[in-house]
Structure formats: structure tokens, C-alpha cells
Design goal:
With 196 residues, this protein is mainly alpha-helical. The protein folds into two domains: 64 residues, no CATH class; 80 residues, no CATH class. Helix 5 runs antiparallel to helix 6 and helix 6 packs antiparallel against helix 8. The longest helix has 21 residues. The radius of gyration is 31 Å and the shape is elongated. The protein starts with 15 loop residues before the first helix and ends with a helix.
């Protein structure tokens, strides 16, 4: 039995094994004119496989470069376009990722930034609404992270610990179960500010 895992690795697998086999066959043709004709036929097949490429402004260049790459740049023909050698094994440069210290990873960096802003705000109704919305999001995050750990007391403790005691939930201003109503209250506050 002939398995794909036992076969030679394809250079551009999106064109499939048959195109790879056609290119491999073209490499064995000794007559240059016949080899040229075979290469032109392969490019036509590749174009039919991906009609989207034909809509590109440099479609011919892309297809011929792909043909050269599939042949590992060993196909000796007269290419109608300039062939740009591209290393198949070249690895892309790693992306830089901003590493920030996150105290509670399951809540995320942005939620911690919101808590910092809320701790800096003056004590008023808008701050209370924001804290309620933060607590509601923390409840969702905690639910997705670990359903068994979902507890309003834990969320209140996390808020108090993160803000160094500047925000305390259990002070009677609101309960965490009311936080869904806080979104409506925030809209009301925003509307009142516009009307003033």
C-alpha cells in the first residue's frame, strides 16, 4: 500500500500530489522543447485549479514562480518571467509580543487596567456602575476559567486585593448580583451628561 506519509514531501501542497508528479515528470524529459511545452501545460493546469490567481495583476509571475519552486529550481526551461528564488525552509521572523505582568491571568490584562482606573476615580455613581460592570466581567471570566471557583466573595476579594483596598465590594453600596443592572445605570448616566 502506498501512503502519503511514505511519499516525498510536497513543496507546495496546495497544488496537490498530481501537479507535483507532473513537475517531477517534466524534470525527466530530455528534449528541451518538449520540456518547455510540458511546463506550459502544467502552468495552465495550475491556473485552472486556482482561478483566483488569474485575477491577480501578476498572475503569470506567481504561477511560473510556483512552478520553479515546486521543481526545487531544477527545471531547465525558458521562463517567460523573472524567477525569484525563495527558500522553502525559510522561517518567518518571530513576532514580538508585549509581555506584561498579569496578577490574575484568568481575568486578563485589560480588566486589571480597568480596575486601576476605577481605583483612581472619585467615589460617585459612575464609579460604582463601572465597578459593577468590571465585577460582572470578572464573574464571566472566572466561570470560563473554573466553574467550581465561581464565587461572589472570591471576586470581591480579588477586587479588594488588586486595588490594595481602595475598592471594597462588601461595603453595602451594591451587591454583585445587581451588576447586570449597572450597565443600564451607566447608559442613564451617559444620557444625563449629554442633556446637561
Amino acid at each position: 500500500m502506498d501512503y502519503n506519509t511514505d511519499r516525498e514531501r510536497m513543496v507546495l501542497p496546495e497544488y496537490g500530489r498530481n501537479v507535483q508528479n507532473m513537475v517531477d515528470y517534466a524534470l525527466t524529459i530530455s528534449d528541451r522543447e518538449e520540456r518547455q511545452h510540458c511546463a506550459e501545460t502544467i502552468v495552465k493546469v495550475m491556473e485552472r485549479m486556482y482561478p483566483v490567481i488569474s485575477e491577480m495583476p501578476d498572475a503569470s509571475s506567481v504561477l511560473w514562480n510556483h512552478l520553479a519552486r515546486i521543481s526545487r529550481y531544477q527545471l531547465d526551461i525558458d521562463y517567460p518571467v523573472k524567477i525569484e528564488r525563495e527558500e522553502a525552509t525559510a522561517k518567518p521572523r518571530p513576532l514580538s509580543y508585549p509581555m506584561k505582568k498579569i496578577t490574575y491571568r484568568h481575568y486578563g490584562y485589560l480588566l486589571e487596567e480597568l480596575l486601576k482606573k476605577a481605583a483612581e476615580m472619585e467615589d460617585n455613581a459612575e464609579r460604582d456602575v463601572l465597578i459593577g460592570m468590571i465585577a460582572d466581567q470578572m464573574r464571566k471570566d472566572l466561570f470560563y476559567w473554573n466553574k467550581d471557583a465561581l464565587n461572589d466573595d472570591k471576586i470581591a476579594d480579588d477586587i479588594t486585593n488588586f486595588t490594595d483596598g481602595k475598592i471594597r465590594i462588601g461595603n453595602g453600596k451594591f451587591r454583585l448580583s445587581e451588576s447586570s443592572a449597572n450597565a443600564r445605570a451607566l447608559k442613564t448616566l451617559a444620557t444625563d451628561r449629554k442633556n446637561k
